[in-house]
Amino acid sequence: MSEAPRAAAPSARLQKLLADAGEGSRRGLEQRIRDGEVRLNGSVATIGSSASEGDQVALGQARYKVVGRAAHHRSLVYNKPLGEITTRSDPEGRPTVFDRLPSVKGGRWVAVGRLDINTTGLLLLTTDGELANAMMHPSSQIDREYACRVFGDVDPAMIQRLKDGVELEDGPARFGDVVDSGGDGENHWFHVTLMEGRNREVRRLWASQGVTVSRLKRVRYGAVFLPHRLRMGSWSELEARDHQILREDAGLSAAPERQLSLRPLKGTQAGPARSGRRKAGAGKPGPRKPRPARRKPQGSKR
What we know:
Blueprint lengths: L10 E3 H7 L5 H9 L3 E3 L2 E2 L5 E3 L3 E4 L2 E9 L4 E6 L29 E3 L7 E7 L2 H8 L7 E8 L4 H9 L1 E3 L2 E3 L3 E8 L2 E8 L6 H7 L4 E10 L2 E2 L9 E3 L2 H10 L8 E7 L38
Parallel strand pairs: 9-15
Antiparallel strand pairs: 1-4, 2-3, 2-5, 5-6, 6-18, 7-9, 7-17, 8-9, 10-14, 10-15, 11-12, 13-14, 15-16
C-alpha cells in the first residue's frame, strides 16, 4: 500500500525573511543578495533562493536560523465607499481601500476579490493568502450577493434568461438567483448572486438585457455578511473562529500553514540593534522624550 504524499515544507524568499527580521527593505536586500553578501547554509545565495525551517542564513556578522510556528492570520470586513479603488497604489493618485486599513506586522492585507470604483459594500481582506486564493477560485463554489438598483423595465422572462445564462464577450455567465427587492417606477432593486467574480459581471449581465445598473453594492461574500451598523469607510475585524469557518468553507484545513521567521543564533548580533548598542564605559543615555499619543487607525470602529 503506497503512502499518501506528504505536504511540501513551507518556504520563503530570503529577502522577505531578512526584511521581516529588520535587516532592511526587500529591494535593498535583493541587491545585497546579488552582491553575494547573503549565504544560505554556508553557500552564497542567489536571487530567487528560498529557505525552509531549519536552514541557516547569514548576512554580514548576523547569523540566523529559520524557524516555523503556526501562522496567526487576521481577516476583516471593510465597507467600501464610492470613489475608492481596490489596489495598493494608483498612478492617478486616487484613494485606495488600503489607505484606511489598520497596520499589520509581518504580513500584508490581501483583498478577496475586487470592487470597481463605482461599486460599494463588502470587501473581505485577510493576511491569509492561501484563504484568499481559495475563496476566489471558481472551484470553491463560494457565492457573492449584490444589491443592485436597475433602471429599465424588467419582466419575468428577462429574469429567467439571466438565471439560465447569457453569452458575454468573455464567455457564458448567469446569476445563481435573482430576488425582487422592491422600488418605484423604472428604478427597481434586486438582490442577485454570482458564483464567480469576473470584471463588472453584474453590470454586464444586466446590460445584456438592455437595462442599466445605477447603483451596486456587495452585501455578502460566502458566509460573511456586511454588518448593518458598519459605516462606509470603516472596518470590522473577524474573530479567530470566523476565520477558521472561512477556511473550512473554502475546502482548507482549519489550521493555517506554518509561518517562517528568522531567529538569531546565540553569540551573534542581528538586526538594526547592532549599530545602536552602547560601548562599555559609554555615558548613560539622556532622558527619553515623551512619545506622541498613538492615533487609532482611520476607519477603525474602536
